[in-house]
């Protein structure tokens, strides 16, 4: 809520864009002196890039100073401020606020921005102008200014360089004056002056009243209840708009110009509304609605009344809200939203349900998408679902009966325009209309204070609930109310506290009233007490039963009838009446009262009220006595008394009747009241019906349109029918044509089969076996007696049903038919049909058969090749022949594919020739299934007149077999010739006449002869004369005998030498077993034999060498291992000893003796090592080959050995017994070594005086089988050394020959242990053996075996 | 009776080796009782004699003529009465074959004849001081071979 601006400064905001400079200049040029405070702010769409000279330019044109606006600049009158570029400008409290704009915001409408702020800031003192320019900038600002009761102008579009901006402003309907720029200044001055005048002028009450009267008369709405200020504002506004000077003038205008009344009416109506006004309050409403709906069951109705709905945003908001709450369940409830307003125009607008997109600003996009349909770029329409719930109707809350049984009444920002009375009345109406616990939703600043008892507050958002009070009010709906009463009441209310305006009379009146001696009550027409003055204790009592303020009921019983009678009288006559004195008793006291009933001079709200005065009568004592006296009078008096009694009782009766009447009256009243309320209900129902009726009408219109469309459709249908009829006649004509054709098919039949292969239709000349009628409906394949044929037919028909065209030949009885089938769709029915055509081909078949048979017999394939189509006419045999499937269409290429690649060239040449000659005759190789076929083609080519070939007809004859034979034969001959000529033997062939047919190259080369030299008998000449006879004879005999034979003879070589040949002949029989001569061969024996021998020998030698080498190697290997081991071991020992003793020596500083002992030991060990090494060397050196020629004398060697050992022999007293040893093959040194070792051993290993016997003998190898495993010779020389030594255990025999192996500890019998190993090695070298036997006398016998020869 | 004297028997066919062994044993400060044989036969005969107090440790040379060390070892280990003797193979040879054979035959320790007198003493001392009960139970190929 903006604060009321106290400044008197009017601020004029101008917006302009392209073309605006010119208009602006014109406008400002008109500026002059004025007597009110005005300043101008110019907002132009300026380019940010250029330094604006706008202020300077305008300054020149305008009498007022024009300056560029600065931030926080205080506005002063009579100045023009220009907004600088790149800035947004707003006004606040007469100050300009500038905001720098970034370049991006160039398109921000700066005029709207300013004008809106202006409207807010200056309200009625705001003036807005929109000049020429592009776009819509300014239109919104203009609207805002108008809304805030400012003044707006727009440049007349015709005078504007660019119409867009002014036109957009005009379209908002918020522009007061549309004038050219030059006239604007005058308009403004006028406006301001008028406003001031009107404001200061006293508003004559009368005039206003009159205007109201007029309004009411015209529209039927009583505006007297509206807040005066509201109405006044509206009127003032209109006056200004019309540029009038006073309200009186306006009144005159209205009188003359009734249309202005409409305008005023429109203006008065407050039509400000929006969707979901006060979002928060609506949220609360939603909650309440949800609670309310929870208590509803499916099928219940939900009735809502939107009072003062204006253009309909409110009821639509409610509908949307309900949809949001209920969702799809909304269909389960009967939703009725009554939307009413006194403004017919607004109602119509609401009914259309089309809104500018600006009004949808408050709505979330989701809802807009859900509930609105975009009609065009700026307008949206509510969907049918929303519209269907709402019934718009014109309704005047002050006059018309309300809708009833409502769950919710929404009346927002309407009641604030009513005065209290109308407000109260409205609340009463709402209270009545609502269901128990119904809700009422008011505007933000409204309250129920005037009728607080009727509603309970639910929450702070102005939602109220109907309170359960009994109706204490009357609802009255009268159309025409006397507004005078209203005025009076106003006056009455005004008067009460205002003593200043009272006259003396008035004061006197007051005094009388207040000081009146008698108590009185003021009652209404029904005698209900309204006011009480004074003490009425005497006269009234509170009766039993329901509280009732009815006078008649409250007064003492004695007074009742009088009161009633009085009432009746006064009511009837309308004047005051007095009753006579009534006497009553109260608390045993008698009282007298006289009642006076006076109607009030003025009516209140059309109701008449009465004063009932209770005058207390104090009867004079005289009167009293009189009364008493009268009571005891005589008979006449008694009569009077009786009469009086009667009268009393009559009075009683009358009383009773009166009471009865009264109660009847009361009943009637109640009934009346009920009728009234019923009536009211009916009235409201009527209202509803009216609304429904309107709805029905619109539905009716829709139906009408639908009906129209249907009518059109019907017309179309009729046309269509006509067309169909025509088509039918055409098709009938066609049918008869087809029928004729079908029935006349020559030589065959035509037939239609259905999917089940049943005959539906059959006709044709070929139908001789059956009658058409007989076979219709029958299964077609079964008509053929042959099962196989029937099956074939079935198959082809089934294939046809799949879409294939069928074509087969079948036999039927003794005839042949060609069947063709095709699938087709029968028009107007579903289901496929087979079109089945037969043609008799018996004759043709027969001819074909004959031809085929002939061809088969002849093993020929005949073909026909069509050049233009490039295909061989379908020829199963050809296809088969070429190795294609017999369905294949064979083209020339296919034929060529089968031709042997080597023959292609030849074939092409042949074909060329054929084309020229017209005759085809050549041979060809075909490759079919990887087999080669030789064929001969013979035929003719038929060409047209231009020598273009049309057809080629030819036969193919398979000559493969013949060719094969020929080939094989040739091959065979060739092979034979090759063999014959390359074999290293001579080959000859003779015939059965014993004549030589053939000799091969070998023979010819050897003999140096020619082929002819040998034929017949002539070959004999080359045989050695001595051998000739035998040669020939053997051949002839064998020939007679037809047997194989062989003979050796010498054949003369080309140089005259003879060589032995071995001849062998084999008889030749042909396939029938006839003798055909001989096949024979000779070969040279000489060479072969020699060759063979040589070969054998060398092989033998080789083998032996290998064997020997192998053996040696093996032995070597074995020995080496052992040897190495022993060598290392035996060598290590003395070495170790040397070291050990040495260590003792070095560590020991003992005496010389000990040391020398050690050093001796060292020496000994070293010596031992040395000897060992020597022996090893000896051992390893025994490698040389035994050469053949070394025959050695053993005796000589022995003698040498003995000689060398003389010292030892003498020393040990050795006796050696010798004998002749003879000679052997051997190496002298080794034999020496051998003998030496053996003798030494014999001496060494002897405890006695050694006796050694050495003998020799020759032993056959066979006897040595145990000792010698592989005798290399047939006989051996055995040399034996017998001694008398310590002997050797038998099991150690082999052991001791191993190197380093000793049987005795070395201290006993020192030695290297290699000696015997050396002996063995030497014997091996000589291919001999060494062995030990034991001697019976103890000692050992060493035997050496040397091979002889 | 707590006699701490260790009874040793040596069998070696080499006189020098016997000499050296004796000298080494004498120089070790352990109370010992040494008996020497020059061949296997004599050894076995001696061991089998009733009344013979079995030695604590027996040193056997491998390379002996007649009954070799390995043969002796096998004999000893065959004999239930003798197999409890701790046998030390005392040999020049360091061939894998010999070591393995003697190990498998049941020798407790293999002692390579050293080329240094001090080493010999050290080796013998170690052999003598080893707690054979403990050592035997853990005998395996790795600690069979005595190394210095």
In short:
The complex is a heterodimer of chains A (1349) and B (148). Chain A has 1349 residues and is α+β, with helices and mostly antiparallel strands.
Detailed description of the structure:
- The complex is a heterodimer of chains A (1349) and B (148).
- With 1349 residues, chain A is α+β, with helices and mostly antiparallel strands.
- Chain A folds into 8 domains: 10-199, 3-Layer(aba) Sandwich (Rossmann fold); 201-262; 272-482, Rossmann fold; 504-632, PAS domain (Beta-Lactamase), CATH 3.30.450.20; 744-844, 2-Layer Sandwich (Beta-Lactamase), CATH 3.30.450; 859-964, Beta-Lactamase, CATH 3.30.450; 992-1181, Beta-Lactamase; 1184-1347, Histidine kinase-like ATPase, C-terminal domain (Heat Shock Protein 90, 2-Layer Sandwich), CATH 3.30.565.
- Chain A has 38 helices and 48 strands.
- In chain A, the strands form 10 sheets. In chain A, strands 3-5-2-1-8-9-10 form a 7-stranded parallel sheet, sandwiched between helices. In chain A, strands 16-12-11-17-18-20-19 form a 7-stranded mixed sheet, with helices on both faces.
- In chain A, helix 3 packs parallel to helix 4, helix 4 runs parallel beside helix 5 (164-171) and helix 34 packs across helix 36.
- The relative contact order of chain A is 0.02.
- By secondary structure, chain B is of the alpha/beta class.
- Chain B has a single domain (9-144), classed as Response regulator (Rossmann fold), CATH 3.40.50.
- In chain B, helix 1 packs across helix 5 and helix 2 (40-48) runs parallel beside helix 3.
- The longest helix of chain B has 13 residues, at 15-27.
- Chain B is globular.
- The N and C termini of chain B lie far apart (34 Å).
- The relative contact order of chain B is 0.16.
- The mean pLDDT of chain B is 83.
- The chains are: A alpha+beta (1349), B alpha/beta (148).
- Chains A and B meet through helix 32 of A and helix 1 and helix 5 of B.
């Amino acid at each position: 809520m903006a604060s009321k601006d106290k400044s008197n400064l009017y601020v004029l905001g101008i917006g302009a864009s392209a073309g605006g400079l010119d208009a602006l200049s014109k406008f400002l040029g008109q500026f002059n002196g004025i007597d009110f405070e005005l300043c101008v702010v110019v907002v132009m769409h300026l380019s940010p890039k250029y330094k604006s000279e706008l202020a300077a330019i305008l300054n020149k044109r305008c009498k007022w100073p024009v300056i560029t606006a600065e931030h926080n600049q205080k506005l002063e009158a009579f100045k023009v401020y220009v907004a600088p570029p790149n800035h947004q400008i707003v006004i606040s409290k007469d100050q300009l606020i500038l905001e720098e704009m970034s370049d991006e915001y160039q398109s921000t409408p700066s005029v709207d921005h300013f004008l809106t702020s202006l409207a807010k800031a200056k309200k009625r003192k705001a003036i807005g102008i929109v000049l020429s320019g592009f776009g819509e900038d300014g239109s919104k600002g203009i609207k805002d200014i108008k809304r805030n009761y400012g003044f707006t102008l727009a440049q007349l579009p015709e005078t504007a360089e660019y119409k867009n901006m002014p036109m957009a402003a005009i379209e908002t309907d918020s522009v007061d004056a549309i004038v050219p720029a030059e006239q604007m200044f005058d308009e403004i001055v006028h406006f301001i002056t008028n406003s001031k005048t009107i404001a200061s002028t006293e508003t004559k009450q009368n005039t206003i009243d009159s205007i109201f009267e007029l309004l009411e008369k015209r529209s039927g709405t009583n505006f007297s209840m509206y807040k005066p200020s509201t109405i006044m504002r509206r009127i003032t506004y209109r006056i200004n708009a019309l540029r009038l000077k006073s309200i009186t003038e306006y009144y005159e205008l209205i009188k003359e110009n009734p249309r202005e009344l409409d305008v005023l009416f429109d203006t008065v109506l407050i039509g400000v509304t929006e969707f979901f006004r006060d979002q928060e309050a609506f949220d609360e409403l939603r909650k309440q609605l949800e609670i309310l709906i929870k208590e509803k069951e499916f099928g219940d109705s939900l009735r809502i009344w939107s009072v003062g709905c204006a253009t309909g945003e409110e009821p639509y908001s409610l509908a949307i809200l309900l949809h949001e709450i209920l969702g799809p369940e909304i269909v389960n409830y009967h939703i009725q939203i009554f939307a009413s307003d006194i403004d017919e125009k607004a109602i119509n607008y609401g009914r259309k349900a089309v809104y500018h997109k600006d009004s949808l600003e408050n709505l979330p996009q989701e809802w807009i998408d859900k509930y609105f349909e975009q009609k065009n770029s700026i307008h949206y329409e509510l969907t049918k679902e929303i519209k269907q719930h709402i019934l718009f109707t014109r309704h005047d809350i002050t006059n018309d009966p309300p809708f009833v049984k409502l769950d919710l009444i929404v009346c927002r920002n309407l009641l604030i325009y009513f005065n209290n009375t109308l407000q109260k009345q409205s609340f009463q109406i709402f209270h009545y209309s609502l269901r128990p616990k119904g809700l009422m939703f008011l505007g933000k600043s409204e309250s129920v204070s005037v009728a607080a008892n009727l509603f309970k507050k639910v929450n702070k958002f102005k939602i109220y609930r109907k309170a359960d009070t009994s109706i204490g009010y009357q609802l009255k709906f009268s159309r025409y109310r006397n507004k005078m009463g209203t005025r009076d009441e106003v006056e009455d209310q005004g008067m009460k506290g205002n003593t200043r305006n009272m006259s003396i009379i008035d004061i006197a009146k007051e005094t009388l009233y207040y000081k009146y001696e008698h108590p009185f009550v003021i009652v209404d027409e029904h005698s209900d007490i309204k006011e009480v003055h004074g003490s009425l204790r005497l006269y009234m009592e509170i009766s039993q039963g329901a509280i009732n303020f009815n006078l008649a009921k409250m007064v003492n019983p004695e007074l009742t009838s009088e009161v009633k009678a009085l009432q009746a009288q006064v009511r009837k006559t309308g004047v005051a009446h007095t009753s006579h004195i009534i006497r009553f008793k109260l608390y045993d006291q008698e009282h007298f009262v006289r009642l006076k009933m006076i109607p009030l001079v003025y009516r209140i709200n059309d109701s008449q009220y009465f004063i009932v005065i209770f005058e207390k009568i104090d009867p004079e004592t005289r009167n009293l006595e009189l009364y008493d006296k009268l009571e005891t009078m005589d008979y006449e008096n008694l009569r009077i008394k009786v009469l009086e009694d009667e009268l009393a009782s009559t009075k009683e009766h009358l009383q009773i009747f009166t009471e009865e009447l009264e109660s009847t009256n009361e009943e009637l009243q109640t009934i009346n009241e009920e009728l009234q309320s019923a009536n009211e209900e009916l009235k409201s129902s009527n209202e509803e019906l009216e609304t429904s009726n309107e709805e029905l009408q619109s539905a009716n219109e829709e139906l009408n349109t639908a009906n129209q469309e249907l009518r059109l459709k019907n017309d179309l249908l009729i046309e269509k029918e006509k067309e169909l009829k025509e088509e039918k006649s055409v098709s009938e004509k066609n049918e008869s044509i087809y029928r004729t054709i079908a029935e006349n098919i020559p030589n065959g039949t035509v037939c239609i089969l259905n999917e089940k292969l049943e005959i539906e239709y059959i006709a044709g000349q070929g139908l001789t076996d059956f009658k058409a009628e007989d076979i219709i409906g029958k299964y077609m394949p079964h008509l053929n007696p042959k099962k196989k044929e029937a099956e074939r037919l079935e198959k082809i028909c089934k294939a046809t049903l799949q879409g294939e065209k069928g074509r087969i030949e079948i036999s039927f009885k003794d005839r042949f038919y060609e069947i063709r089938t095709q699938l087709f769709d029968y028009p107007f029915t579903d289901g496929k049909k087979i079109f089945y055509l037969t043609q008799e081909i018996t004759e043709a078949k027969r001819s074909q058969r004959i031809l085929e048979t002939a061809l088969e017999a002849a093993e020929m394939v005949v073909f026909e090749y069509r050049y233009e189509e490039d295909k061989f006419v379908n020829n199963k045999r050809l296809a088969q022949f070429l190795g294609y499937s017999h369905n294949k269409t064979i083209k020339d290429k296919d034929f060529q594919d089968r031709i042997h690649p080597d023959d292609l060239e030849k074939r092409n040449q042949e074909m060329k020739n054929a084309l020229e000659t017209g005759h085809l005759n050549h041979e060809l190789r075909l490759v079919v299934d990887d087999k080669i076929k030789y064929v001969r083609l013979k035929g003719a080519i038929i060409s047209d007149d231009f020598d273009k070939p049309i057809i080629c007809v030819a036969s193919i004859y398979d000559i493969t077999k013949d060719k094969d034979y020929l080939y094989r034969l040739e091959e065979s001959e060739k092979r034979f010739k090759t063999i014959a000529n390359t074999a290293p033997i001579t080959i000859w062939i003779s015939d059965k006449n014993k004549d030589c047919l053939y000799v091969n190259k070998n023979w010819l080369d050897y003999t140096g002869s020619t082929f002819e030299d040998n034929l017949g008998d002539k070959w004999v000449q080359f045989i050695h004369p001595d051998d000739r006879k035998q040669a020939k004879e053997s051949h002839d005999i064998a020939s007679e005998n037809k047997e194989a034979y062989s003979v050796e003879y010498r054949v003369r070589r080309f140089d005259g030498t003879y060589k032995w040949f071995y001849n062998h002949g084999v008889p030749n029989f042909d396939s029938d077993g006839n003798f055909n001569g001989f096949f024979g061969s000779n070969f040279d024996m000489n060479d072969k034999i020699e060759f063979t021998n040589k070969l054998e020998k060398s092989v033998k030698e080789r083998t032996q060498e290998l064997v020997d080498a192998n053996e040696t190697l093996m032995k070597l290997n074995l020995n080496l291992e052992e040897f190495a081991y022993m060598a290392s071991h035996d060598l290590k020992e003395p070495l170790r000893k040397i070291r050990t003793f040495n260590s003792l020596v070095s560590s020991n500083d003992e005496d010389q003796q000990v040391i020398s002992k050690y050093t001796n030991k060292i020496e000994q060990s070293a010596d031992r090592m040395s000897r060992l090494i020597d022996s090893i060397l000896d051992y390893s050196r025994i490698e040389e080959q035994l050469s053949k020629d070394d025959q050695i004398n053993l005796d000589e060697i022995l003698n040498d050995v003995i000689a060398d050992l003389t010292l030892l022999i003498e020393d040990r007293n050795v006796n050696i017994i010798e004998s002749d040893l003879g000679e052997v093959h051997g190496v002298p040194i080794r034999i020496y070594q051998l003998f030496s070792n053996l003798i030494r051993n014999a001496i060494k290993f002897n405890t006695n005086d050694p006796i050694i016997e050495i003998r020799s003998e020759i032993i056959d190898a066979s006897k040595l089988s145990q000792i010698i495993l592989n005798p290399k010779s047939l006989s051996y020389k055995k040399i034996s050394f017998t001694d008398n030594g310590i002997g050797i255990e038998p099991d150690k025999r082999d052991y001791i020959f191993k190197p380093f192996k000793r049987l005795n500890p070395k201290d006993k019998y020192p030695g290297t242990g290699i000696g015997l190993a050396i002996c063995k090695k030497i014997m091996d070298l000589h291919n001999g053996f060494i062995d030990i036997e034991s001697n019976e006398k103890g000692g050992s016998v060493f035997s050496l075996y040397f091979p002889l020869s | 009776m707590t006699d701490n004297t260790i009874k040793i028997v040596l069998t070696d066919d080499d006189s020098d080796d016997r000499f050296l062994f004796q000298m080494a044993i004498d120089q070790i400060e352990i109370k010992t009782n040494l008996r020497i044989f020059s061949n296997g036969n004599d050894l076995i005969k001696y061991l089998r004699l009733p009344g013979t107090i079995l030695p604590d440790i027996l040193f056997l040379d491998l390379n002996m003529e007649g009954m070799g060390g390995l043969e002796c070892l096998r004999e000893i280990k065959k004999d239930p009465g003798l197999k409890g003797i701790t046998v030390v193979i005392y040999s020049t040879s360091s061939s894998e074959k010999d070591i393995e054979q003697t190990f498998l035959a049941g020798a407790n320790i293999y002692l390579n004849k050293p080329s240094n007198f001090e080493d010999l003493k050290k080796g013998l001392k170690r052999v003598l001081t080893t707690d054979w009960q403990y050592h035997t139970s853990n005998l395996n190929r790795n600690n069979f071979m005595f190394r210095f």
